[in-house]
Amino acid sequence: VQLVESGGGLVQPGGSLRLACVASGFNIDYYDITWFRQAPGKQRELVAGISRGGTPSYLNSVKGRFTASRDDAKNIVYLQMNSLKPEDTAVYYCSAVIFGQGRVWGQGTQVTVSS
Predict the structure, then answer these.
(1) How far is it between the farthest Cα atoms of the chain?
(2) Residues 13-31: what's their mean pLDDT?
(3) What are the φ and ψ backbone dihedral angles of 110, each rounded to 5 degrees?
(4) In what helix (H) or strand (E) does residue 42 lie, and over which residues does it extend?
(5) How far is CA 96 from CA 16, 17, 24, 44, 115, in A?
(6) What per-residue confidence (pLDDT) applies to 81?
(7) CA separation (Å) from 113 to 22, 24, 85, 101, 105?
(8) Which residues pair with 80 in a beta bridge?
(9) Are 42 and 32 in contact (CB under 8 A)?
(10) Percentage of residues in the chain having pLDDT higher than 90
(11) What are the phi and psi torsion angles at 88 (to 5°)?
(12) How far is the C-alpha of 94 from the C-alpha of 105, rounded, in Å?
């Protein structure tokens, strides 16, 4: 059971990135998938989630800018991030609570928003 994030990088304020979370060892069809982030010196926070049925949810500060989606056929979850701000700088993780495994985390991908 593994989650692997990609798509992070350095972007200017106002720019966009699309993160991907590729799952292996299990079918994401049966699970809610969540995105967290952790900035230096801060606690990890939940940024967005997408339910098994495809219903997204968001941290208030990213509503209208971030969009979570899923492609169950490819076993991938995405986080489209637009209008990025310096305060969005963090390591972003995808995660899921897997039956028999508990909460599983990816290794994270760094997002840096800076001019």
Answers:
(1) 44
(2) 97
(3) -80, 130
(4) none
(5) 25, 22, 12, 15, 33
(6) 98
(7) 23, 29, 6, 34, 23
(8) 18, 67
(9) no
(10) 99
(11) -85, -5
(12) 6
Read off the amino acid at residue 18.
R
Residue with tokens 């798509």: 7
pLDDT (0 to 100) of residue 49? 97
Please report the sign of the dihedral spanned by the C-alpha atoms of residue 3, residue 45, residue 84, residue 77: positive
Tokens of 60: 């208030």
Q: Please tell me the distance from the alpha carbon of residue 111 to that of residue 84, in angstroms, as a whole number.
A: 10
- Phi then psi for residue 84, to 5 deg, are -65, 145
Query: Which value, in Å, is the radius of gyration of the alpha carbons in the chain?
Result: 13
Cβ proximity of 78 and 20 under 8 Å: yes
Q: What is the pLDDT of residues 39-98, one digit of tens each?
A: 999 999 999 999 999 999 999 999 999 999 999 999 999 999 999 999 999 999 999 999
